[in-house]
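Input.
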Amino acid sequence: MKVGILGGGQLGRMLLQAAANYTVETYVLENDENCPAAHLCHHFFKGDIKDFNAVYNFGKNLDALTIEIESVNIDALEKLEQEGVKIYPTPAAIKTIKNKILQKEFYQKNQIPTAEFIITQQQNDLKNYTNFLPAVHKLAEGGYDGKGVQILYSDADIDKGFNAPSVLEKSVSIEKEIAIIIAVNDKKETAIYPPSEMIFDPVLNLLDYQLSPARIEVNELWKIESIALSVVKNLKSAGLFSVELFIDKEGNILVNETAPRVHNSGHHTIEANYCSQYDMLWRIILNYPLGNTKAILPSAIVNIVGAENFSGNAKYIGLENVLEMDNVFVHLYGKQITKAGRKMGHVTIISNDYADLTYKANKIKHALKVIA
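Output.
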């Protein structure tokens, strides 16, 4: 099969690393020929994944396409789908998820529990909803890695809101943030990964580290799996989906967002699960049986991000010290340029002891720095 990936970042890179185990001819479309995935594919094409002609011309001679980021040209994907190219997930599913307004309305329509929300078209609209605050203002499109998200505590923060179509989402008193990955094949069979517990950096609003399987009660696990399955089944698409949820202080479980692709919350599956999320997506695309999602051992992930006040050619400080640690696996994304908060890699830790996972995660976070 000839399979194309729209986007050449670190997710595409790891997807291509897993592709090496299969007989598949890989193609990548990305604007930057030095992107993390460029040298691992069989065929690289330079082009804008948001441009109709670039996406259509890239995909028209391929058997299948998948994405590593949602900001792709949906019109081109719809035309390619009509012409017989298999798209994972479907253009309809990507269209629903890539726009946060459509995504929230999808949850509402399908009675999927989510935080109360209001749709705004411009910044001035916020003046009508001061009684709804505190709330989180999220751009409908274009936000990523914590960008395009603004917390509004009171009417004094209205000028921080977005002057574009957005979702104003009621603040939730969060006890835990959970991500769960579900695989769906063309036969509508599903495989569910153990959920992960995400701990966020409060300043960058980026994943600080995560633990998997999440430390939750059995009844919470059942509810999370049931809600996430409802999300995925209502999208009516084969593919790999990461559903992010909140457990609030009262024990309610609410869907935050869904990603229609391999996801940062599943990096640990490379070492910690029998079938990684990347291997699983290839099984779906190539029409092979779904893999075993069980955890081999509990795990933690630490993001490697560019240090504050540094911008330029990346230099890794403390890397050797981390590599000396037992049951620790370093993944660098091959990005030549660092800047504050940029994802440059991740580290996976596996251990039977959650205290050991947390200890090593914090040790790595402070030992490993990316400067210029």
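The two ends are 41 Å apart (CA to CA).
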